[in-house]
Amino acid sequence: MSNVLLLPPPKIVPLLDPSFRPAAVARRHFAAQAAATGHPAVVRLALEQADGSVFHFSTPIFSEDAPEADANFFFVERLVKFLLWSRGAFRVYFDGPATLGRQLQKHFTETASGKFDAQIMGERIYERPFAVVLAHQLPPPRSNTTPLGRHLEGCRIGFDLGASDRKAAAVLNGEVVFSEETLWNPVPQSDPQWHFDQIMESLQTAAKHLPRVDAIGGSAAGVYVNNRVRVASLFRGVPPEVFEQRVKNLFLELKAAWGNIPFEVVNDGEVTALAGSMSLGENAVLGIAMGSSQAAGFVTPEGNITSWLNELAFAPIDYAPAAPLDEWSGDRGCGAQYFSQQCVGRLLKAAGIDLAEDQPLPEKLKQVQHLMERDDERAAKIYQTIGVYLGYGVAHYAEFYDFKHVLLLGRVTSGPGGEIIVRSAQEVLKTEFPELAQRVGFQMPDEKEKRHGQAIAAASLPAV
């Protein structure tokens, strides 16, 4: 049976993307169809991280003798892909039909997108060989959570490094006394000294507004472990050997330059979620930042962060066969193409908005925002489409995260277009996932909170 038959259309179709097939709908439909046979099989998975954390998941599939069994691999592979980028793992234990397990092993050794995931997870993030292990006995589940930030005393600097701008703020006992946003273009830069100098310049500018500097906290796109850079799009222009020599320890170098004061750098999505938790006075927050790419972070119901990656830019939310390609991983239907400036640029043609091809994405977004301020129907369709994506994306995320609040940040959500995004997402939940609509709320901080909340949260990371 063709996978397409197991990909029903959503009840609310995004205006500019009628072929969209949300993962949230497809997974529910697949599970229901497998159960309807009366004898579904089950795949059990365990994902292992370098610190010993192990996460368990299971999914019903069609039994091997069912006519629909050829769809099993697609749905299991998409699930594993999502789990790798939401949780993270260097080893995946597979308990299920051996033929399916071997297909999964071949995917990570023989296909371009599979090899990308294996190389990033194994060599880059966890520094271990990546493997899919066929096993009937899974290691027992184990997880670690830790408190994050919320330290406000003293003189602190908070910074945030994005792909199109960097921000720095001086924070005195929890109050922002100075903040600055500087445009930059780090991705094509091949010399790490350029990155070092640019970041240092922002820190020194903020420091001038404080009597002293007790601690520095920052957020940046990518994966960071103990202040070491594992994977980061900001440094994509740096040759691999130079990355190992200089970029990996760049923030430790910055820390040394500031006299080894407390210095913490974490993923920007985690700081987004932390900022939301601090401003709301609530926990169980999933933060989603729609900027040059998608950033995400999660604060547990207990107010902690986990060892999860939360790199949802690479996690698939659209199962359509012709879903847009991610430029870095080469995979289809991943979050970055739906919740970022890349999405706005991708939808321009379908909306009938003609802008120069060579215009940078931030400029294209500004043009769309200007059109939206004039109530341009074409721009409104872009935001409605993103909102529908978001509603179905949040429904999919809710299968894997326990959250009550979705905090939305990033340039794409600015202005009246952001309100359309939220309304459209809420409409999706009410129509297709009413139980979720009752327990999940969308939060969009005002412009002051957006600017200062992230800076305060970043500055609060190090304990003094």
Using the 3D structure, state the CATH architecture of the largest domain.
Answer: 2-Layer Sandwich
> What is the class of the largest domain in the CATH system?
Alpha Beta
Question: Outline, from the CA principal axes?
Answer: globular
User: How much helicity do the residues have?
Assistant: 25-40%
Query: What oligomeric assembly is this protein in?
Result: single chain
Strand content: 15-25%
Tell me the radius of gyration: 22 Å
What's the story with the biggest beta sheet?
5 strands, mixed
The figure for the number of domains is: 3
Mean pLDDT: 93
Arrangement of strands in the largest sheet:
8-7-6-9-12
- Category by helix and strand content: alpha/beta
Terminal residue distance: 60 Å
Number of E strands = 17
The tally of helices reads 14
The CATH superfamily of the largest domain is identified as ATPase, nucleotide binding domain
Pick out the low-confidence regions.
Answer: none
User: Could you say what the CATH topology of the largest domain is called?
Assistant: Nucleotidyltransferase, domain 5
Secondary-structure blueprint:
Blueprint: H1 23-36, E1 41-48, E2 54-61, H2 72-86, E3 91-95, H3 98-110, H4 112-126, E4 131-134, E5 145-147, E6 155-161, E7 165-172, E8 175-183, H5 192-207, E9 215-220, E10 223-225, E11 228-231, H6 240-247, H7 250-257, E12 263-267, H8 268-280, E13 285-290, E14 294-299, E15 304-306, H9 341-351, H10 361-373, H11 377-397, E16 405-409, H12 416-432, H13 434-439, E17 441-443, H14 447-459
Parallel strand pairs: 3-4, 6-9, 9-12, 13-16, 16-17
Antiparallel strand pairs: 1-2, 1-3, 5-15, 6-7, 7-8, 10-11, 13-14
